[in-house]
Amino acid sequence: MWHSLVTAGEWHADGQGFENMTESIKALVERRVAGKSLDAPFYTSDEVFDLDMKAIFAKHWIFVASEPEVAEPGDALVVNVGTASVIIARDDNGEIRAFHNVCRHRGVRMIPEGKTMIGNIVCPYHSWTYGLDGKLKFYEHMGEDFKPGCNSLKPVALRSIGGLLFICLSDNPPGDIDEMARIMEPYLAPHNVREARVAHQVDLIELGNWKLTMENNRECYHCGPNHPELTIPLFAYGFGFSPTELDEEGRVAAQRYTDLIEVSRSRWEGEGLPSSEVDELTGRPTGFRTQRLPIDQSGESYTMDTRAACRMPIGAVQDKALGALSFWTQPNSWHHFMGDHVITFTALPLSADRTLVRTTWLVNKNAVEGVDYDLERLTEVWKATNQQDADLVEIAQQGAEDPAYETGFYSPYTEGLVEKFAVWYIERLKDYLA
């Protein structure tokens, strides 16, 4: 469904797109109204999607995996970001590296998307062979003047922060990731992700634009009526509420939550667990936010009974009631760190109306399935929640494609993080278009 942009230029229904595309998109960006959802073409337009891939996903730090996904030398993972394909591999010295998945001979894509184990990186076309350090090791028939040292695989910038792996496809990655690493390492270190192992991973295709996926994640306004499993351990009050609209029962529950935050944070900080809110979501290329929040009832884990799903703690902290440390990054990830397991989420755009959401559950590396944890119990809350969110994103996409769609006001109480995501996104487009 194509949308008329009125002041932003004429949109053609025959698929030709904008007249004077760049100027029209600039006008669309400039007309964004603070506190309101984005104009429909931000969610529906192929041209805007192409801009997103160039201005956002090709220029910023993108969360793609965790260190346990490439735990041993020779472990490799191929992640596709738009038309780019990246090999992430651990070499024989234990160092994790990232390379463009493109042979230097004739540009062939060498390894299919997904996980594998390799001793070398071998091009299937003409058998050019690269070490896990990216250096060209084997080639034939290239003549005496050929210089193998000039034909190593092209590296991709990679950073591990607390065991979470971020890549940047740009030759000039944003330097403010150093600040995010400085702040976040102390928050993440107690959970020892680098020494964890993958218990389970699920890929889900959401039938919506990647921004709708992220906006849905950034609020819990929708949680009460849509997430019966998640709202057993999760306090929706942690994501805001209108105090004047609470009934007596709601006021009591909100006060109980406020009191619990104070008591829990004091205990967590005393145990050496940084827990206070850090909000750097806007005004910088590498936007992020973190905060440790209580879990209801036992306070232990995102499970149906709120108790730990794995009997072996993840990391060095023995206190089971750690609540959940949440870590959000712009543009594409969110994570939850508890005493017994960690869950990571990455959203990767596939098209203007398709988004891959990858969820990974991590546990203590020595934990044994069926002995130390039951996989169904470990995963059931977020499997259900992810599908519920996918259903919501799909109908949000359908709404954005409807001719009746108009931008709507965000709740100042419960959708502040959605507004910050939109602000960050518009900031980054303006920077790119300038």
From TrEMBL:
Segments for region (Disordered): 271-292
InterPro entries (UniProt xref): Rieske_2Fe-2S (IPR017941), Rieske_2Fe-2S_sf (IPR036922), Ring_hydroxy_dOase_asu_C_dom (IPR015879), Rng_hydr_dOase-A (IPR001663)
Protein known as: (Fe-S)-binding protein
Alphabetized Pfam families for the sequence: Rieske, Ring_hydroxyl_A
Alphabetized UniProt keyword annotations: 2Fe-2S, Iron, Iron-sulfur, Metal-binding, Oxidoreductase
The keyword Membrane appears for this protein: no
Domain Rieske span(s) in chain numbering: 61-167
Species assigned in the record: Acetobacter peroxydans
Cofactor(s) needed by this chain: Fe cation
Keyword Oxidoreductase: yes
